[in-house]
Amino acid sequence: MACRAGLLLLLSWCCVAGWTGHANAADDVSGLRAGSARAVITPEPGVFLGGYDYNRRATGTHDDLYATAVIFENGTTAVALVVLDALSMQPFIARPIAEKAAARVKSPLLPAEHVIAQATHSHAAPDLTGIYGPDPVHSGLDPRYVERVITASVEAIAKAWDQRQPAKLFARQAECRGWVDNDSEPDILDPSVTVLEARDGEGKTIATLTNFAAHPTVLDGDNTLISADWVWGFYTAMRKALPGEHLFLQGAIGAWIQPKTPDHAFERCAAYGESLASTVLNASAVPLKGTEIEVRRKTFSIPLRNETFRQMTKLNLTPRNLDGDTVETEAAWFRVGEAEFATHPGETAPEFAAETRKMMRTEGPKFVLGLGLDHLGYILPVRYFDRVSEIRFADYLVSMSPGREAGEVMMTALRDLIRGN
């Protein structure tokens, strides 16, 4: 399916539209090494699927779920990114992955603080928050599956580490339009597609990292088959076209950024995934400069104004403590050469992605990773709280948000991270 006309959030796009790359970059990356690998995290049927309704158990598997990892290393330091085909990312998953991966790799170049985990947010994957169990008062979290996800993620990171090889970096920039809407505020949408590609000395792809914002929700609550949703279609098309591993980096989807769903069929998932893959593959690859790697993380607290979140802890739905006046979370910023990345700890509005890109310092590609290191529900602009009756779906979005201060607190933390404060 070709990408067609759609709506554009100009503020988001203007932050990257001026970037043109560097023609001589291939001569400047000989000190960089990259590796990639993936491990299956498909559960057995019977697990509770996340999203939509209670008591939605998986009856089978349509396509495998993966933990897909990429490593960048320059002889001085390294950074690892692992992406899970999962509904959610929580600290009780992200932190053990980082700690165990660092212990497994056993290199001072890759401390636990340099391991970043993100979720794609598929609603046809198991519940990794605990809130989608058999009913509202019993957890859907399977500790055995959580441990399997952690173990597989560590395996993928360790394998990617072992497969490191000299790499050159390239970036692609495009727009994918026509099958994603902002159902809450139709005039605010970011169709940008940002891609980082690592190639070996023969020009063979080691990994691609594609950042785009769209819920993986073609499949609805009637579906009981395990799947990465339309992201599966993207993986399939990319693997047919290029070697290496292909990571989908979810963007800012917190203002009801949804795919169009004239139907809820797997054929629709394939078509949308192929559309994004086609956009990536048809975009020009521009070489990048630099071998520098920087990684910074920041732990901070967000005011917690949502009684529903507190009930999650009181009912033992989640091992996380959400029963206070604040909730602790984390964000990360890292740079590989000219490519910059920042995580958002939840489903954030497009304007937060635009603001994050404006803070970044290089002229290269800029990536905003939604559901990175954490998933604190919807992190929204204040207007959603002030205009609940005017903005479509605002009542639900607000009900699943930590509160009106979350966006400002997150952006302050990111500003400090990016500036090195």
Outline the structure in words.
The protein is of the alpha/beta class. It has one domain. It has helices spanning 10-17, 91-105, 143-162, 230-241, 266-282, 307-314, 350-359, 383-386, 394-399, 406-419; strands at 33-40, 60-61, 66-73, 78-84, 115-119, 165-166, 168-175, 180-182, 192-199, 205-212, 225-226, 245-250, 257-259, 286-287, 293-303, 326-336, 339-343, 347-348, 366-369, 378-379. The protein has a five-stranded mixed sheet with strand order 5-4-3-1-6, with helices on one face. The protein has a five-stranded mixed sheet with strand order 12-10-9-7-14. The protein has a four-stranded mixed sheet with strand order 15-16-17-19, covered by helices on one side. Helix 2 (91-105) runs parallel beside helix 3, helix 4 (230-241) crosses helix 5 (266-282) and helix 7 (350-359) runs parallel beside helix 10 (406-419). The longest helix is centred in the middle third of the chain and has 20 residues, at 143-162. Mean pLDDT is 93; it is low at 1-30.
Quick description:
The chain has ten helices and 20 strands. The protein is of the alpha/beta class and 421 residues long. The protein has one domain (1-421).
What distinguishing features does this structure have?
421 residues, alpha/beta, five-stranded mixed beta sheet, globular
Strand and helix layout:
Blueprint: H1 10-17, E1 33-40, E2 60-61, E3 66-73, E4 78-84, H2 91-105, E5 115-119, H3 143-162, E6 165-166, E7 168-175, E8 180-182, E9 192-199, E10 205-212, E11 225-226, H4 230-241, E12 245-250, E13 257-259, H5 266-282, E14 286-287, E15 293-303, H6 307-314, E16 326-336, E17 339-343, E18 347-348, H7 350-359, E19 366-369, E20 378-379, H8 383-386, H9 394-399, H10 406-419
Helix pairs in contact: 1-7, 2-3, 4-5, 7-10
